[in-house]
């Protein structure tokens, strides 16, 4: 039983993780090689061993590609070396980014669901509103983020709100699309059933359309919450903010602190993964019964 | 001092002669679908009277309009011409008054609701108090032999059990008329026999009027008081066979071995053949 689980579950996971790590270290060796050779040349070290070369390649101060252990030790130092409220603590920056991402996500959920309900319930909105919704997503967020910051700043909003608006901008789209599909997913038989009960539009919505849309909604929410983190980070770049993972990425690239950049990247990935996981947890409580297979 | 009471108007309910009153009256019903290339004649000049307490089977090959006829009675389709009266009203008024329960080919249970909450669904829509609808659901689940399955979800039940839940759901709000569209079509023969037996008992016990669509001759003969044989496009009534003259109302599976049963089955088969149902 235990060995079976080991074989079918843990083994592939471990093999994959090891493969990624091996590739990463190989990449670091290859990409940092010019720097190392340069260093050897400057120190007039003509005779060096392969292990010496590797040790150098894996411990550059500003490597082209930092190694996982460099990133890990930078993160541990940042997370444990300073109080959580300190600007050098990554958790502080993560909290700032998570705050605006989640605010934007909340706004995006409300907007996305309302748009979907509108599109499904009002026939003319599908042809008049949906093209705008789709067009909005063809504009790169990098192009629109500075505009949003400038416009909102001009009418007196700064700080969290502009960032949340950019997160919302990325969020609402998958939610609208998923929810429109979900609200239309009720099968004709179930709709006929509602008709035989002479249920009104509202009853059909709450008792049939909404529950059948929930699995679609949660799939969209997972995409949207990950997008909201991207939105928040992108929004932190043009604001030149002092706090947030985006600000951390920006200052890292100003000073060529690649280890700092990668730590912030890993942190944002961890943030997204935990948010997606949280949505999955919510899904298990909200979406009752096993879907599919029965009609 | 009391004024003499005015004469009481005769009550509108059940004068004795109206025991066999007509529940469904279809007169010259024609239904044509407009499709892209050519019109499809689903029903052509169908007239049929169904009395209270009848068990009517509509039998015919696929595409003969038997489901369409039933959907028209249920106001899920509208006839192109002709008239249908359900319970003395138009089908729409009857639907709005929830005069009938409909059992579809598939159970159409809502997978996010437990068995019990599937059965209470129509009661919720009608605005029945929670305690009462729970009691109703329990009663009707017991009636279809599913007591103890209240908290299960549809996917935990077999196909036959799911279809019984859908029958309980159709019975739960106690309509006079039960419309069943090939409810056992997807089930194996053993389950089907069992459910047929259960259904005929249920029908006797509840005194409902049933309209039942099927392809199975044996099923139709076993269950019905009258069998309506239909021909394929355009859907027409070929024959109406009265089974009650030959078979008792209360039936067991053994009656399928009797000569009367075989005789009626033979007549149904002849009717279907006459409509060229066995072509190709």
Automatic annotation (TrEMBL), chain A:
Query: What InterPro entries is this protein classified in?
Result: MetI-like, MetI-like_sf
**What is a single cellular component term in the Gene Ontology annotation?**
plasma membrane
Q: Which organism is it from?
A: Insolitispirillum peregrinum
Q: How does it sit in the membrane?
A: Multi-pass membrane protein
**Keywords, ordered alphabetically:** Cell membrane, Membrane, Transmembrane, Transmembrane helix, Transport
Kindly provide the name given to this protein in its UniProt entry. Answer: NitT/TauT family transport system permease protein
- Domain named ABC transmembrane type-1: residues: 90-283
Membrane-crossing residues? 90-117, 129-152, 164-183, 213-235, 259-281
Transport is among the record's keywords? yes
Q: Is Oxidoreductase one of the keywords?
A: no
Q: Which domain of life is it from?
A: Bacteria
Q: Where is the protein found, in the record's own terms?
A: Cell membrane
Family, as annotated: Belongs to the binding-protein-dependent transport system permease family.
PROSITE patterns under this entry?
Answer: ABC_TM1
Q: Which GO terms describe its biological process?
A: transmembrane transport
Automatic annotation (TrEMBL), chain B:
Concerning Pfam families, the annotation shows: ABC_tran
In terms of InterPro entries, this protein maps to: AAA+_ATPase (IPR003593), ABC_transporter-like_ATP-bd (IPR003439), ABC_transporter-like_CS (IPR017871), ABC_transporter_ATP-bind (IPR050166), P-loop_NTPase (IPR027417)
On whether Transport is a keyword of this UniProt record, the answer is: yes
Q: Which UniProt keywords apply?
A: ATP-binding, Nucleotide-binding, Transport
SMART domains linked = AAA
Q: Name one GO molecular function term.
A: ATP hydrolysis activity
According to the entry, every stretch annotated as the ABC transporter domain falls at 24-257
Q: What's this protein's family per the entry?
A: Belongs to the ABC transporter superfamily.
Task: Indicate what this protein is called per its UniProt record.
Answer: NitT/TauT family transport system ATP-binding protein
- Organism of this sequence: Insolitispirillum peregrinum
Instruction: Tell me the lineage of the source organism.
Output: Bacteria, Pseudomonadati, Pseudomonadota, Alphaproteobacteria, Rhodospirillales
């Amino acid at each position: 039983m235990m060995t079976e689980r080991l074989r079918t579950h843990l083994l592939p996971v471990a093999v994959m993780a090891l493969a990624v790590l091996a590739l990463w270290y190989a990449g670091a060796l290859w990409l940092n090689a010019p720097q190392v050779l340069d260093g050897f040349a400057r120190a007039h070290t003509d005779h060096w061993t392969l292990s010496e070369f590797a040790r150098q390649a894996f411990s550059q101060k500003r490597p082209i590609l930092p190694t996982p252990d460099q990133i890990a030790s930078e993160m541990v130092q940042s997370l444990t070396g300073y109080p959580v409220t300190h600007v050098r603590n990554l958790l502080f920056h993560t909290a700032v980014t998570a705050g605006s991402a989640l605010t934007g996500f909340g706004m995006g959920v409300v907007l996305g669901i309302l748009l979907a309900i509108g599109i499904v319930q009002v026939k003319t909105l599908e042809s008049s509103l949906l093209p705008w919704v789709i067009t909005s997503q063809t504009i790169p967020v990098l192009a629109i983020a500075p505009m949003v910051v400038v416009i909102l700043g001009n009418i007196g909003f700064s700080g969290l709100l502009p960032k949340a608006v950019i997160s919302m901008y990325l969020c609402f789209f998958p939610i609208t699309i998923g929810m429109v599909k979900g609200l239309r997913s009720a099968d004709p038989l179930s709709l006929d059933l509602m008709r035989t009960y002479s249920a009104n539009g509202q009853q059909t919505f709450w008792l049939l359309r909404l529950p059948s849309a929930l699995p679609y909604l949660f799939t969209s929410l997972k995409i949207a919450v990950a997008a909201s983190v991207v939105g928040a980070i992108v929004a932190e770049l043009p604001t030149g903010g002092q706090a947030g993972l985006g600000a951390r990425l920006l200052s890292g690239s100003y000073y060529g602190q690649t280890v700092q950049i990668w730590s912030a990247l890993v942190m944002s990935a961890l943030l997204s993964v935990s948010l997606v996981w949280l949505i999955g947890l919510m899904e298990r409580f909200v979406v009752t019964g096993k879907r599919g297979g029965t009609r | 001092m009391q004024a003499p009471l005015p004469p009481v108007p005769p009550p509108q309910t059940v004068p004795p002669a109206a025991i066999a009153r007509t529940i469904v009256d279809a007169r010259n019903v024609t239904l044509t679908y407009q499709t892209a290339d050519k019109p499809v004649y689903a029903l052509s000049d169908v007239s049929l009277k169904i009395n209270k307490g009848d068990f009517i089977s509509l039998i015919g090959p696929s595409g003969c309009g038997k489901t369409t006829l039933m959907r028209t009675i249920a106001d899920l389709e509208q006839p192109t011409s002709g008239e249908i009266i359900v319970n003395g009203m138009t089908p729409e008024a009857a639907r709005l008054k929830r005069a009938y329960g409909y059992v579809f080919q598939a159970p159409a249970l809502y997978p996010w609701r437990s068995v019990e909450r599937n059965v209470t669904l129509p009661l919720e829509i009608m605005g029945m108090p929670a305690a009462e609808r729970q009691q109703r659901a329990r009663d009707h689940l017991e009636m279809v032999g599913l007591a103890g399955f209240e908290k299960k979800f549809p996917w935990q039940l077999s196909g036959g059990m799911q279809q019984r839940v859908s029958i309980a759901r159709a019975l739960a709000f106690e309509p006079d008329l039960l419309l069943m569209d090939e409810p056992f079509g997807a089930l194996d023969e053993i389950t089907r026999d069992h459910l047929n037996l259960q259904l005929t008992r249920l029908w006797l016990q509840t005194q409902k009027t049933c309209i039942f669509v099927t392809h199975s001759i044996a099923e139709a003969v076993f269950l019905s008081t009258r069998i309506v044989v239909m021909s394929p496009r355009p859907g027409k009534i070929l024959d109406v066979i009265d089974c009650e003259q030959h078979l008792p109302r209360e039936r067991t599976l053994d009656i399928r071995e009797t000569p009367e049963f075989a005789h009626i089955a033979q007549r149904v088969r002849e009717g279907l053949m006459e409509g060229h149902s066995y072509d190709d």
